[in-house]
Write a structure and sequence with these properties.
By secondary structure, the chain is an all-alpha fold. Helix content is about 80%, strand content about 0%.
Length: about 170
């Protein structure tokens, strides 16, 4: 049995160097593959939530009580349907790109595109979540409750999806 050469030696001999010193023994292509798998996992979670919200919104229009909505509530509802559609399209965009460039050595580009699309989808989904909660409260209780709950949801999202990750990221640097 022959000994397997050290990966670093193989990289040096092939002229390929890993530019990140994060303790992982992987080539840039292996890192891109790992990062793409992480993007896919996050997309799966995001898509499931988006699909549930979209289904909920689409089903509302076929409920008998939908006829009782005023013009402003119907307009708000349609904005939410558009946001749900946009978030689904943005969340699926990296998968579509991956299919179009499959086998063309564009994995790093796909990962970067996926990262940007995920952040964009998270923003649209956060606005959608706030909007859906506010819409339900508006229909069930009234406009003032809608504003209160919408603001509370926005604060919770900003804290958990924005402030906490930034604090953790800053602490990780020091």
């Amino acid at each position: 049995m022959t000994a397997r050469p050290n990966r670093d030696a193989v990289r040096e001999n092939d002229g390929i160097r890993d530019d990140r010193a994060d303790g992982r023994d992987e080539t840039p292509n292996e890192r891109a593959d790992r990062n793409w798998n992480e993007v896919l996992q996050e997309l799966r979670v995001l898509q499931t939530g988006t699909q549930i919200l979209t289904g909920f919104l689409l089903a509302l229009a076929f409920q008998p009580a939908f006829a009782d909505l005023d013009a402003a509530q119907r307009a708000f509802y349609l904005v939410l349907v558009v946001l749900a559609t946009l978030s689904a399209v943005v969340a699926l965009a990296p998968v579509a790109l991956h299919r179009m460039v499959f086998g063309r050595s564009e994995k790093r580009t796909v990962v970067i595109y996926g990262h940007i699309a995920l952040i964009t989808a998270l923003v649209t989904v956060s606005v959608l979540l706030i909007g859906v909660v506010a819409f339900v409260f508006d229909v069930v209780i009234g406009a003032s409750a809608s504003w209160t709950v919408g603001i509370a949801a926005a604060v919770a999202l900003a804290t958990l999806w924005g402030i906490v990750p930034v604090v953790i990221r800053i602490r990780g640097r020091s």
